[in-house]
Amino acid sequence: MEKPKYKRIVLKLSGEALAGEQGFGINPAVIQSIAKQVKEVAELGVEVAIVVGGGNIWRGKTGSEMGMDRATADYMGMLATVMNSLALQDSLENLGVETRVQTSIEMRQVAEPYIRRRAIRHLEKKRVVIFAAGTGNPYFSTDTTAALRAAEIEADVILMAKNNVDGVYSADPKVDANAVKYDELSYLDVIKQGLGVMDSTASSLCMDNDIPLIVFSITEEGNIKRAVLGENIGTIVRGK
Hints:
- InterPro entries: AceGlu_kinase-like_sf, Asp/Glu/Uridylate_kinase, Uridylate_kinase, Uridylate_kinase_bac.
- Keywords: Allosteric enzyme, ATP-binding, Cytoplasm, Kinase, Nucleotide-binding, Pyrimidine biosynthesis, Transferase.
- This is Uridylate kinase.
- This protein is of the alpha/beta class and about 240 residues long.
- The chain is about 40% helix and about 20% strand.
- It is built from nine helices and eleven strands.
- The protein has helices spanning about 15-20, 30-40, 60-65, 70-95, 115-125, 140-150, 185-195, 200-210, 225-230; strands at about 10-15, 45-50, 100-105, 110-115, 130, 155-160, 170, 180, 185, 215, 235-240.
- The strands form two sheets. A nine-stranded mixed beta sheet has the order 4-3-5-2-1-6-10-11-9, with helices on both faces.
- It starts with 7 loop residues before the first strand and ends with a strand.
């Protein structure tokens, strides 16, 4: 049997990853593909927590730039992450994977409130836990949510699944043909060079808590499993 390198992971999915090539909304084929990959990993005995973004439905930053109150725009973005989380939960449970959604903003009719000890207990029972509604606070991204939840549940690694790039580059590879892909980086490198892997708050939180990050492409099926098994895919970002 294949032996996973990590026992407990946080999988960070951008909202755009759920939209696929259409760029907005939820693409059923994409979400089913992701659910199948998560099931593969869960069947290895890995404890899986997921943080989903909401950029395929709404971006708080966009609303703020339109003149909307920033806090209001961010709360709308949190609600978008709940919609994505429920869609992902449905796909996972259709595959027979027991799943719980926990929200940072209470909405008991659709999901559990986030309680750290309960989340850990679900993971120990091999349930997939999806953390929705960000941190519950405006001005914080879902990248920061992933870093915070990873620290809280003592995850071994954060797997950051990207929709249109297969790792961390020195520049945008779609714009700059000379962009160089990094195999390994430190969080200090990421912050100093402004590489845009995740925002500086999330990077600092990961660095302070010594949580490694693997950035890879979600579009190639099986990549989540490859990352969990310790194969060299994408870019790994480590402590200092």
